[in-house]
Amino acid sequence: MADDVLSQGVLSQTEIDDLISSLAAGEDSDKPKKTVASNELEKVVKVYDFKRALRFSKDQIRSLTRIYENFARLLTTLFSAHLRTYAHVSVVSSGQVPYGEYIRSIDSMTFLNVIEIPPLKGRMIMEVQPDIAYAMMDRILGGKGSGMNKISLLTDIEMKLLTNLFKKTLDPLQEAWAGISHIEPKLSEIEVNPQFLQAVSPNETVVVVSMHAVIGDTNGTINIAIPHVVLEPIISKLTAQYWMESGTKERKPEAVDALKSSIKETNVEVDVELGKTELTIRDFLALSKGDVFQLQKRIDEPLFVKVAGIPKFLGQPGMKYNNLAVQILTMINEGDEDDEW
């Protein structure tokens, strides 16, 4: 614009003022554009800590939470029945952290149950706080279930009692995982000092599921730590889509055949009804050996053959090898039963 004006001749004062104003307006309009671009760039850039790599999606965390919610319900039943006191276990939170950070967050003395879960590789950790563990042990020994942090003073007998109790939690763990994978959990060791436990490398991501436990009047926490290496082979199953598909998919032919085979070996009671009649209480009390009363059925009519109390066949009586027998004549279809039976 400036070149066009200068080519036409000398500028007037009004034209000079307009030119300066237009140049100033152009500079101001450029500033917001740069600011907007800068803001957009700041929104895109996110800080990422490679030491805290997030290797599980929110959907996968929710699937694991669902598994351990079921596990918590099973533990509630187990502890209530075995300890004979009020017990309740519920999931309160779940998330993923580096293994080294998880270990540093644990108390210096606690119960760390190291569980192997073949065929999956690696080991998971079930941390039971001392107050809860001692309340369980106190109930086993006949006490009221008082919690006391005296883990360093436990005797060999007390440790054996707690070990046996912790082993009982493996069956509920297997049942809770049945919808995702068949596992055979085994309690390999119990460690009381987290610094001596090196399950995976410090930078390995672990999923930590925290459960609140109540045993009698004692409250505490049970934490489950599952390393990524354990879940890697089945990571594709930890989705909502898999849960929905597994609930609706048909049984495999092998499973159907096995079910049919098991049903065929089931024993059922079979009865044959010769006939019916009606007697008064007086006549019934007067019955004696040798008396005869008439049934409401002709001798040439077929008999009802009942399976588990339900008429399924029509048959006729007879003898086989000097034993009473019934020959099946036909099967009773639904709606064909006589109203009298």
Give a description of the structure.
There is one protein chain. This protein is an alpha+beta fold and 341 residues long. The protein has 3 domains: 2-44; 52-249, CheC-like (Chemotaxis protein chec, 3-Layer(aba) Sandwich), CATH 3.40.1550.10; 264-331, Surface presentation of antigens (SPOA) (Roll). 39% of the residues lie in helices and 23% in strands. The chain has 11 helices and 10 strands. The chain has helices at residues 2-8, 13-44, 58-83, 99-105, 130-140, 156-167, 170-176, 228-231, 240-248, 253-264, 281-286; strands spanning 87-98, 111-116, 123-128, 186-191, 205-215, 218-227, 270-273, 303-307, 310-320, 323-331. α3 runs antiparallel to α7 and α5 crosses α6. The radius of gyration is 39 Å and the shape is elongated. Mean pLDDT is 78; it is low at 335-341.
Count of discrete structural domains: 3
What is the CATH class designation of the largest domain?
Alpha Beta
Number of discrete helical segments: 11
Shape: elongated
For the sheet with most strands, the description reads: 6 strands, antiparallel
The CATH architecture name of the largest domain reads: 3-Layer(aba) Sandwich
Summarize model confidence as the mean pLDDT: 78
pLDDT under 50 segments (min length 5)? 335-341
What do we call the CATH topology of the largest domain?
Chemotaxis protein chec
What strand line-up does the widest sheet have?
Answer: 1-5-6-3-2-4
What's the alpha carbon Rg, rounded to whole Å?
Answer: 39 Å
Distance between the termini: 109 Å
Q: How much strand content do the residues show?
A: 15-25%
Helix content: 25-40%
Number of strands: 10
CATH superfamily of the largest domain, called what?
A: CheC-like
GO biological process, one term: positive chemotaxis
Keywords: Bacterial flagellum, Cell membrane, Cell projection, Chemotaxis, Cilium, Flagellar rotation, Flagellum, Membrane
Domain Flagellar motor switch protein FliN-like C-terminal: 263-332
Protein name: Flagellar motor switch protein FliM
